[in-house]
Amino acid sequence: MSLVASGVTRHYLRHRKSHTALSGIDLDIAPGARMALVGESGSGKTTLLKTLLALDRPDSGTVTLDGTPVAPGSARSLRWFRRRVQYIPQDPATSLDPRKSVVDLVATPLRLLGSEGDHRALARNALAAVGLNERFLQRRPSELSGGQNQRVAIARAVACEPEYLLADEPVSGLDLDLREQVLDVLGELSTRTSTALLVVSHDLSVAARLCSDISVMCDGSIVESGSIAAVLTNPSHPHTRALLDAVPRLRSN
Ligand code: ADP
Ligand code: MG
User: What is the pTM of this model?
Assistant: First the structure.
C-alpha cells in the first residue's frame, strides 16, 4: 500500500536530440512517509513529481497507488486519485485560475472532490493557517504577491487533507517568518492526518526540518537514499557531498 514509481523513464526532445529527464526511477512512498527529494536544478525533480501526480505520462515504467496504475486522464477518471494525492506546484502563480477569488481557489477542489463539511469554512481555516486572513479572501491571484500566491496553493492542497502531499519547493519564495509558519502547517498536517510528504527542496535545512528520509537525484537518477541522519552525516555519492558543502551550517552540526 503506497505510491510507487517503477522503472519510470521520461525523455524530452531538445534541439531535435532526445534528452533523458528521468532514467529508470524506482521510488516507493509509504503511507505517512516524510521524504525529501533534493538535487541540482535540472536533475529531474519536478518531472518526477509530475509523473507521480499523473500530470505527466512516462515513456516507460508505471506509477501505482495501492497497486492501481495511474496515468494522465480526465478529471473525472482521476477524481479518486486527486482525493488522495495532492500537489503544491513549483510555480503556483501560473497554476492558479486568475479569474477565481482566493477563497474559491481553495474551496472549489473541496467541492469537486466531494469533501465533507462546509467548503468555504474549511477554505477560510486553511488560508488562516498560512497567514491569509479575511482581507485576502476576495482577491484574485494577480492582486497577490508571489509569496501570497504560494500560500494559496499550499492552503489549497492542505485543505483537501490528502494521504500524500507532493510539494515542489513549497517555501522557496517566502521570507523567514512565513517559511517557519508554513513548515509548521505542513508538519502539523503530516502529524495530525498521517499525510505522507514528498518535499522537493534545494534547502537541506527544510528537508531536515520536515522529513526523516531523503533521496538525492542527479541527471535523472536517484543516486542515494536513506534516513536523513545517515545520508547527511555520511554521504556516499559525490553529488550529495557537493550539496552538503553548499550548506556549511548543517554539516558542522
Ligand atoms: P528540476 O525540477 O530538478 O530542476 P526538471 O524536472 O524541471 O528538473 O527538468 C529535468 C530536465 O528535463 C531538464 O533538463 C529540463 O530542461 C528538462 N525538461 C523538463 N520539462 C521539460 C519540457 N516540458 N520540455 C523539454 N524539456 C523539459
Ligand atoms: Mg523543478
Answer: 0.93
